[in-house]
Automatic annotation (TrEMBL):
One GO location term (cellular component): cytosol
Full protein name: Glutamine amidotransferase domain-containing protein
InterPro entries membership: ChyE-like (IPR044992), Class_I_gatase-like (IPR029062), GATASE (IPR017926)
Signal peptide residues on this chain, from the entry's feature table: none
A Pfam family annotated for this UniProt entry: GATase
Record domain Glutamine amidotransferase: where: 225-361
Source superkingdom: Eukaryota
Length: 409
């Protein structure tokens, strides 16, 4: 295995002891944080050289890049949330001056820099406690060491990628709503961009920090590839979430597959909230409380107050189906007298609400009038909903909670 000279610009004999200490930290601290991942990482063999010094220096590059918390994940590594995986790729790209001996799927003299894509895709996703554990830098390393390394890898660091959200459209809005506001993908896109503007969070630009795709899961039954997205948002629908229509069963199955992994996160709204509950094993059916419509104030649990950042929450409602009970293992966030299962959360996995943060007064009023004209809503229900339709509601607050959930480690 060959490598170009002066990989790090030359560290010199004076820091040999430091390098050896880093070598020990590399195999103890990160390995402990990530449950032995250093033995599982593809291409790790590329960093091993007959010379112990070279081996230690190469591993020192990775350790400092991770522990130094380089700011920008690279390109499409393993998703925006997989910061540790992304940073490892940055280090591997720099050490890619070396050639490997027959890496997985490669051949002799395969260069990491020449073909970085396979490396990115094979990196495991490290999130949550592992990231926080690795945020501790090694204080006794000379400052210039990290500066030199950071400068050397700059050509390989890409801007932070956008948060890739796939909107699973489970219905088409009423014609008048489509004419004024567009389909659900456009409605949710507008809401989430407004939420991003309000958050004013570094690295999350409403213009460039969010990337949306729309998927018709009803008629086309089209779905995104999980490796191409960071989150899915399952929309509301006029259909029954407990029916066994082929497209609904496929949606439940897709949701189960997402729940079985730990990278792509799930947002659920109304029907989507119920589909998520069904995928988790909860019973879904007609609510004992009957229809719940228009702007309604919910009671928040202590955890709900933390997630949404408020003591109470008002949202547009439009449902008579509900989860019979929360699935096992979730955190309950909200309830009303008519529906005790209004919102649920699992850290790093999903956040869903029974209400409609995307609805406006105009959208809810149109639905009330059409369903009243069709005889779905009687006069009493219609008048009650119409009397509350213009009340203040917290759709943007919920959307901001969605975004913060997607960004949390």
């Amino acid at each position: 295995m060959a490598m170009k000279p002066n990989l790090l610009g030359g560290m010199g004999v004076a820091v040999t002891g430091v390098v050896q200490s880093i070598h020990r930290h590399w195999y103890r601290t990160p390995n402990s944080c990530m449950g032995g991942w250093t033995e599982k990482l593809p291409y790790l063999g590329c960093l091993v050289h007959d010379s112990g010094d070279v081996e230690e220096i190469a591993e020192h590059v990775i350790c400092r890049v991770i522990c130094g918390k380089a700011s920008a994940p690279c390109s499409d590594a393993t998703g925006r949330q997989a910061k540790c995986g992304s940073l490892i790729y940055v280090a591997l790209a720099r050490v890619g001056d070396m050639t490997c001996s027959v890496p997985p799927g490669g051949s002799e003299n395969h260069s990491l820099i020449a073909q970085p894509i396979p490396v990115r895709r094979q990196l495991p996703a490290f999130t949550g406690p592992a990231s926080r554990c690795l945020s501790q830098s090694i204080s006794h390393v000379p400052a210039y060491t990290f500066t030199d390394i950071h400068t050397s890898i700059l050509p390989y660091i890409m801007p932070a990628p956008p948060l890739r959200i796939a909107i699973l459209e489970c219905d088409t809005p009423l014609p008048a709503v489509v004419a004024r506001h567009g389909a659900y993908d456009r409605i949710f896109t507008s809401l989430l961009r407004a939420a991003a503007d309000g958050l004013a969070q570094p690295g999350l630009s409403a213009a460039s920090g969010l990337e949306f795709t729309a998927w018709d899961v009803v008629h086309e039954q089209s779905y995104p590839a999980p490796e191409d997205i960071d989150a899915v948002l399952i929309s509301g629908s006029k259909y029954n979430s407990f029916d066994d229509d082929p497209w609904i069963l496929r949606l439940v199955d897709f949701t189960k597959k997402l729940l079985a992994q730990r990278r792509v996160r799930i947002l659920g709204v109304c029907f989507g909230h119920q589909i998520l509950g069904r995928a988790l094993g909860a019973a879904v059916g007609r609510s004992d409380g009957g229809w719940e419509v228009s702007v309604t104030t919910m009671d928040l649990t202590k955890r709900g107050q933390e997630i949404f950042g408020t003591t109470s929450l008002a949202l547009h409602q439009m449902h008579r189906d509900a989860l019979g009970a929360y699935p096992e293992g979730v955190e309950a966030l909200a309830s009303t007298d008519k529906c005790p299962t209004h919102a649920m959360y699992a850290a790093g996995r999903f956040l869903s609400v029974q209400g409609h943060p995307e609805f406006t007064e105009d959208i809810t009023r149109e639905i009330l009038e059409v369903r009243h004209a069709q005889g779905i809503f009687d006069e009493e229900l219609y008048r009650d909903g119409a009397a509350r339709v213009d009340r203040e509601q917290d759709g943007v607050v919920v959307a901001q909670a969605f975004l913060k959930f997607l960004l949390e480690e």
